[in-house]
């Protein structure tokens, strides 16, 4: 005959499993933001995570500064050559920028520099290694809301999927659950960017008739209302035309180096659909 | 970041599993089970995955540890290493299963499966060292409490 203690333990396990399955089933419909209890946990634990992250960063910098000097000389020479080449390119882009600005005035387009932005620091990464998200040190208190786009100087980083008072979670574009509406800058053909790994994304739904080549730059299309138009997303590294498939198989190298995310910019642009969604969605 | 170097990805220690085994040696299984559930829940809040996923996963891992620790001696070093190796390996396999069951889109490669095996080995090999350090900490806090 089972003792009362064993029966009690059994029911505790059953309750815990039920709670876990309940949480999972509640989330199966799609992504949801943090509820008040989760926000409380974040507010308590995130400062510790921030401290640990800064300690790791300092240690890493010391390591690289004092022990990573072996390849510095060769890298210095290589970078000087690259700098000279980039200077030439820069003169060309200055001309293109001037022409672009004139056209924008004529067509009354708003560019990204007109959008207010707020800087944030990455204080933690996804602890599981299975998903691609980061925690940043800005939240509702800084005017941040759900689904706001996140960028840095290199290009699109991701969007906010959870917000608490002082911290937020950013789903990176390299996560498999992320999708960004993009266009090929040269040919204006569109596709949906989905993450595969930290170094490679894929561009889905690119028609067979699309004009896509290796080396093409991919930018945001502005459709979907989350990301402003024209922000760099990445570069096409591989294009295949599999027989029997409806779409091309296009691989993209992200413009952003996701291994070096430290400071990010959040564009204070509200999701136009946000008014139609409740907090529970 | 350091963890993005491929070789360092192989040296991934699952510290939660190590803690579960350590706590199971000294504390009641009910509280260790609740600890495993709570750790999983905290990981879910910080990660980009579903809430409840790692809570369920670590709860199952706890049951696996309980079952595996019957034939293997949890108080011996080889037993600890073996238990942690099996628990971490099964945890990663379970995660792949959950990915397919809940239709989460995660790309897996041969390198990822290699990472699973090495992560399990590293966790098992490093566990006795972590246990030794935790024992030292435990003794230090006991001596502080006793005023020694």
Structure description:
The complex is a heterodimer of chains A (281) and B (148). By secondary structure, chain A is an alpha+beta fold. Chain A contains three helices and twelve strands. Chain A folds into two domains: 197 residues, Rod shape-determining protein MreC, domain 1 (Thrombin, subunit H, Beta Barrel), CATH 2.40.10; 38 residues. About 2% of the residues of chain A have low confidence. By secondary structure, chain B is mainly α. Chain B has one domain. Chain B is 76% helix and 0% strand. Chain B is globular. Chain B starts with 5 loop residues before the first helix and ends with a helix.
CATH domain fold name of the largest domain in chain A: Thrombin, subunit H
Helix-strand makeup class of chain A: alpha+beta
> How many beta-strand segments of chain B?
0
Globular, elongated, flat, extended or rod-shaped: what is the shape of chain B? Answer: globular
* CATH architecture tag of the largest domain in chain A: Beta Barrel
Task: Give the ordered list of helices and strands of chain A.
Answer: HHHEEEEEEEEEEEE
Quickly name the level 1 CATH class of the largest domain in chain A.
Mainly Beta
Q: What is the domain tally of chain A?
A: 2
């Amino acid at each position: 005959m089972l003792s009362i203690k064993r029966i009690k333990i059994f029911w505790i396990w059953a309750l815990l499993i039920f709670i876990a399955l309940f949480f999972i089933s509640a989330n199966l419909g799609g992504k949801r933001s943090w509820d008040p209890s989760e926000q409380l946990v974040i507010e308590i634990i995130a400062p510790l995570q921030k401290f640990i992250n800064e300690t790791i960063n300092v240690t890493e910098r010391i390591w690289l500064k004092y022990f990573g000097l072996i390849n510095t000389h060769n890298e210095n020479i290589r970078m000087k050559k690259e700098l000279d080449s980039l200077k030439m390119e820069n003169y060309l882009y200055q001309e293109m920028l001037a022409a672009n600005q004139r056209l924008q005035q004529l067509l009354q387009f708003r560019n990204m520099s007109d959008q207010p932005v707020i800087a944030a620091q990455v204080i933690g990464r996804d602890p599981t290694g299975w998903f691609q998200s980061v925690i940043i040190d800005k939240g509702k208190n800084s005017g941040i809301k759900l689904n706001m786009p996140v960028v840095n100087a290199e290009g699109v980083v991701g969007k906010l999927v959870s917000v608490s008072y002082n911290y937020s979670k950013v789903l990176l574009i390299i996560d498999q659950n992320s999708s960004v509406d993009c266009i090929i800058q040269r040919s204006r053909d569109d596709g949906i960017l989905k993450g595969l790994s930290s170094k490679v994304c894929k561009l889905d739904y690119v028609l067979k008739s699309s004009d896509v080549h290796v080396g093409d730059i991919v930018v945001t299309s502005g459709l979907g209302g989350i990301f402003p138009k024209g922000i760099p997303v990445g570069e096409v590294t591989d294009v295949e035309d599999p027989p029997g498939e409806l779409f091309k198989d296009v691989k993209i190298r992200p413009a952003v180096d996701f291994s070096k995310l430290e400071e990010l910019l959040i564009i204070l642009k509200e999701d136009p659909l946000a008014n139609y969604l409740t907090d529970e969605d | 970041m350091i963890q993005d170097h491929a070789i360092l990805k192989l040296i991934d220690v699952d510290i939660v599993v190590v803690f579960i085994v350590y706590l199971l040696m000294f504390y009641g299984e009910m509280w260790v089970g609740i600890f495993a559930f709570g750790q999983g829940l905290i990981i879910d809040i910080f990660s980009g995955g579903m809430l409840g996923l790692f809570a369920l996963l670590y709860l199952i891992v706890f049951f696996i540890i309980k079952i595996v620790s019957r034939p293997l001696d949890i108080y011996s070093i080889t037993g600890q290493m073996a238990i942690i190796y099996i628990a971490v390996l099964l945890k990663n396999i379970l995660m792949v299963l959950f990915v397919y069951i809940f239709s989460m889109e995660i790309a897996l490669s041969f390198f990822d499966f290699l990472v699973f095996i090495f992560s399990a080995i590293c966790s098992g090999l490093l566990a006795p060292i972590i246990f030794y350090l935790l024992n030292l900490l435990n003794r230090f806090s006991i001596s502080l409490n006793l005023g020694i």
